[in-house]
UniProtKB/TrEMBL annotation:
Top-level taxon: Eukaryota
The keyword Lipoprotein appears for this protein: no
Segments of skewed composition (Pro residues): 286-296
Protein name per the record: CDC45-like protein
BP GO terms, sorted: DNA replication initiation; double-strand break repair via break-induced replication; mitotic DNA replication preinitiation complex assembly
The keyword Zinc is assigned to this record: no
Subcellular location as annotated: Nucleus
Bias-annotated ranges (Acidic residues): 205-222, 239-250
GO molecular function: chromatin binding; DNA replication origin binding; single-stranded DNA binding
Cellular component GO terms, alphabetical: DNA replication preinitiation complex
UniProt-listed InterPro entries: CDC45
Length: 764
């Protein structure tokens, strides 16, 4: 379906059409998807515009400024236009938020037809989003059938032109949403339910009073009288309209409906619909053969009860879908790579973007919402969708990067982590047994282990005993502290070749079972991805995702203390700390001077509180969200000899951003855990960051979410150890693991708290 839509776009787009509008979320996965899509569009010479949106307010503003002018009759031209929402929009009704179309109730009050509006505006919106649940209006609420659309599904002969919302399905809708689809379609085709109908449906089945019984018997008498009149008539055209409307003011559906079981609910009270046809065609003088009495038809009251019961069943089905919580489906970058593969345009550059996008989702704390739904009967985590996607990507790496003769002639050290290219022109993607360390190629071994979320939380690195456990682990591995504090690229060659073996030897003793991948050298299960750019550098996909994410969350490297890229040495005395610099610039902004740094991030309430934070409302604040977005987008651009200022150079230049953020997370998280500032409330955990050298850093929601992930995993490890690592029988996961975590950070510049919420600690 996706390739059909794209092919239709390339065949119908011309110079008179407006540029394709791409609205994208501020995530690494969405940026990788944008890079893949724009690469395809450039090859087909289709003009496009990329607009970042940081929330629903930005999405609505983009709809008013950019989308609604594309509608027919509102300044649009041709087919109206096309809009692509990448990583956003799946959870809201886009026909209302972007197009400004009224909902069904408002349209009925205005005497308008929603279907006619949707068929005529000419704006086609593609939604490519991995966040679930869907807003079902986007899937099944297109409002029209025919012309390549059947029950909300786009068929192969779809021509487009009328506009509407089109959701790109990753397979969930076809495989898992049949019941939800049936409930939605049933409610859409169901007649209006009045308050009298609800009162009838709530009446007891067996406790009918005498008045209700008399009314029902009266209805039956009128129905039998009406049927008698029809039997005495010689022609089906000779009927009594009063007999058909003998139900008085009771409303009835205008056409026949179907229930869940597929049996029709008659549109009017009466017996078997075939009985009237037999009576009308039979001769009045012909003898009527004796037959058993027909079953008594349900009364109007019973039909209304059945209809109300069916409606409640459908509503319960939809409510169950929405109440299932939030989870993540296939990353949007892999969906766009699948499109490129269907078009026959897959290559190493697009494959690398898809790999980085998938790894960024795996690093996200919100990915645990997806994996928490995948547990077997014994409470063990089963293979989740990301594991399956990574397995498919490994197959793609083998297909597009076959081993060369040069690599086959070199000695094979399968446990060695690649740190350099095979040649000056080597840009291939390789599989690597990556340990769960942070930026190991660009830091010292000690710092990489210390700032690893997986290792630091399990060794209790926030305490002195935890630091001693780390030192003892290094000693058992035969690595001295002085050697470990060297840059990884300068480690002893024998240590680098045997590092994974030394780690796996003591992993079980320190509860680090998932620290290194297994020894499946053939299938290379759980191995990571590494790419080289000649002699200029070698990065893993996790490294790239970490750096790009840091750019999006906390800004460019000019706002951080300098750091040696090779050894990772950090001297806080070189310049003032980030938080102090940020607070100083914020106060400058409040005094009316122009700051050169990055102030507090924009907030939805800034417009209402502008007189408190800015004495000169007319002064325009720079759009730092857009600046960060395009800087991160440049870091993902292809790095070739002709592109020396983007891609790899941008990534290497902003490595200190990721390192500084990791240090701040470790310091602040250790303080929260060691001082026992995480409170366990009735239904969630809560922590507040009010002070500290890194307070100004965590006013950025993205950085605060990363801190929440670290704290959540640490609390989850502590709870598991407290319970002896045992799970409650039949529960799958412990109750403590299911609790949410709410984390707040004080924004001293605005005098407010930035609050984020996410799921409980991961169990690794």
């Amino acid at each position: 379906m996706e390739s059909t839509l794209y092919t239709h776009l390339t065949s119908t787009h011309n110079a008179t059409n407006p540029p394709l509008l791409i609205l994208t979320a501020l995530t690494v996965d969405a940026l990788c998807a944008v890079r893949i899509l724009t690469a395809l569009l450039k090859r087909d010479f289709i003009p496009h515009t990329v607009v970042p949106v940081s929330g629903y307010a930005d999405l609505q503003d983009a709809g008013e400024r950019l989308v609604q002018p594309l509608k027919r009759g509102a300044g649009g031209a041709g087919d109206g236009g096309r809009v692509v929402c990448i990583g956003c929009g799946g959870g809201v009704d886009l026909s209302e938020l972007l197009l400004g179309l009224p909902d069904e109730d408002e349209a009925e009050q205005d005497g308008l037809e929603v279907a006619a509006q949707q068929q005529g505006h000419g704006v086609e919106i593609w939604v490519i989003d991995a966040r679930r649940p869907w807003n079902l209006e986007n899937i099944f609420g297109n409002g029209y059938e025919g012309e390549g659309v059947k029950e909300g599904r786009i068929l192969e002969h779809y021509q487009g032109g009328r506009g509407g919302v089109i959701v790109w399905d990753d397979g969930d809708i076809e495989r898992e949403m049949d019941e939800v689809k049936e409930a939605w379609m049933g409610l859409r085709d169901m007649p209006e339910i009045t308050e009298d109908d609800i009162a009838i449906g709530n009446a007891p089945e067996d406790g009918e009073d005498a008045v209700a019984g008399d009314e029902e018997r009266g209805d039956d008498a009128e129905l039998s009288s009406s049927q008698g009149k029809r039997k005495r008539s010689h022609s089906p055209d000779d009927h009594d309209p009063e007999a058909e409307n003998s139900d008085g003011d009771d409303e009835r559906p205008s056409r026949r409906r179907r229930s869940n079981s597929g049996t029709p609910i008659p549109s009017s009270p009466g017996g078997n619909p075939m009985s009237n046809q037999l009576a009308a065609t039979a001769s009045p003088s012909a003898p009527v053969p004796s037959s058993p009495p027909a079953p008594r038809a349900p009364s109007l009251k019973q039909q209304k009860k059945d209809l109300l019961r069916l409606r409640r069943r459908h509503e319960a089905t939809l409510q169950k879908y929405y109440d299932a919580g939030s989870w993540t489906a296939d990353p949007v970058s892999i969906m766009l790579y699948s499109l490129a593969e269907d078009l026959g345009r897959d290559d190493n550059e697009l494959l690398w973007l898809a790999i980085v996008g998938v790894e960024s989702v795996a690093l996200s704390p919100f990915a645990s919402s997806q994996t928490s739904k995948s547990f077997d009967e014994g409470g063990r985590r089963s293979a989740n969708r990301l594991d399956i996607v990574k397995s498919l990507l490994r197959d793609e790496v083998r297909r597009l990067n076959p081993p060369s003769l040069h690599s086959q002639s070199q000695p094979d050290y399968p446990d060695t982590i690649p740190t350099q290219a095979r040649s000056a022109t080597d840009t291939s993607i390789r599989l690597s047994p990556e340990p769960r360390f942070l930026l190991i190629r660009h830091w010292s071994l000690y710092d990489s282990m210390l700032h690893s979320t997986y290792l630091s939380t399990r060794l209790h690195i926030w305490s002195e005993s935890g630091r001693k456990r780390l030192h003892k682990l290094l000693a058992k591995m035969g690595i001295s502290l002085s050697e470990a504090q060297k840059g990884y690229v300068h480690l002893d060659l024998e240590i680098k070749r045997s590092l994974n073996q030394r780690l796996s030897r003591f992993a079980e003793q320190y509860n680090l079972d998932g620290l290194v991948p297994g020894t499946d050298y053939e299938g290379k299960t759980a191995w990571g991805f590494v790419r080289s750019w000649g002699w200029r550098g070698t990065l893993s996909a996790v490294d790239v995702a970490t750096v790009v994410s840091a750019i999006l969350e906390v800004g460019p490297s000019e706002h951080f203390a300098t750091s040696d890229l090779t050894l990772g040495k950090y001297d806080p005395g070189r310049r003032e700390t980030f938080s102090a610099s940020l607070l100083h610039r914020t106060r400058q902004a409040q005094q009316g001077t122009t700051p050169s740094g990055l102030p507090s991030p924009p907030h939805s309430s800034d417009d209402n509180n502008n007189h408190h934070t800015n004495p000169n409302p007319s002064d325009e604040t720079p759009d730092y969200t857009t600046t960060r977005f395009f800087l991160a987008l440049d870091s993902l651009s292809p790095s070739t000899a002709s592109h020396t200022t983007a891609g790899l150079p941008t990534l290497l230049h902003h490595l200190p951003v990721a390192q500084t953020l990791a240090r701040a997370i470790l310091r602040t998280g250790s303080h929260l855990i060691s001082k026992k500032q995480i409170r366990h409330l009735r239904s969630f955990r809560m922590g507040v960051v009010r002070e500290g050298p890194d307070l100004g850093l965590f006013v950025h929601p993205g950085a605060l979410v990363k801190l929440g992930r670290w704290v959540g995993e640490a609390v989850g490890v502590l709870e598991a150890e407290k319970n002896g690592g045992r799970k409650k029988e039949g529960s799958g996961r412990k109750k403590e693991d299911e609790e949410a975590l709410v984390l707040a950070a004080l924004d001293e510049g605005r005098g407010v708290y930035v609050v984020v919420g996410l799921g409980g600690g991961s169990d690794g």
